[in-house]
């Protein structure tokens, strides 16, 4: 896996990232840090990556468990250390899983398997942050 991150120059703190899979992502800093607030912060991108990684796992596990899943949203709320390096210290994942006749035990198992075994991003972040998760099921 590879990516290239390039400063866009000028007076700001905007960066463009090109991923190995051929996609482009922009990032920017907060105005009080020299940025212009034109794109997500790099640390927000870490949360986005963790959310995408675990949502992917949960949907795949539910499909393989023959659950009629039709939607999966993950809301992440994080706290950071006050001092540098301002690592994540707590991250809460809240899953809203939509489908027909979803088995709560199967959904809980999918979330747990993702966080304990499959989601590389959240497992890596758990080295500095306390990771918690909850879920709710919405009948389609």
Automatic annotation (TrEMBL):
Transmembrane segments: none annotated. Gene3D superfamilies: 3.30.300.20. It holds the Pfam family OsmC. It comes from the Bacteria. This is OsmC family protein. InterPro entries: KH_dom-like_a/b, OsmC/Ohr_fam, OsmC/Ohrsf.
């Amino acid at each position: 896996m590879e990516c290239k991150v390039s400063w866009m120059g000028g007076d700001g703190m905007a960066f463009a990232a090109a991923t190995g899979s051929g996609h482009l992502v922009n990032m920017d800093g907060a105005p009080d840090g020299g940025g212009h607030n034109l794109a997500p912060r790099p640390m927000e991108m870490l949360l986005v990556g963790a959310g995408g990684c675990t949502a992917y796992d949960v949907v795949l596990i539910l499909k393989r468990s023959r659950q009629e899943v039709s939607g999966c949203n993950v809301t992440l709320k994080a706290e950071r250390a006050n001092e540098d390096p301002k690592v994540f210290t707590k991250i809460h994942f809240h899953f809203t899983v939509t489908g027909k006749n979803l088995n709560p035990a199967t959904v809980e198992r999918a979330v747990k398997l993702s966080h304990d075994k499959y989601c590389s991003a959240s497992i890596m972040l758990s080295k500095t942050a306390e990771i918690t998760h909850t879920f709710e099921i919405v009948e389609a």
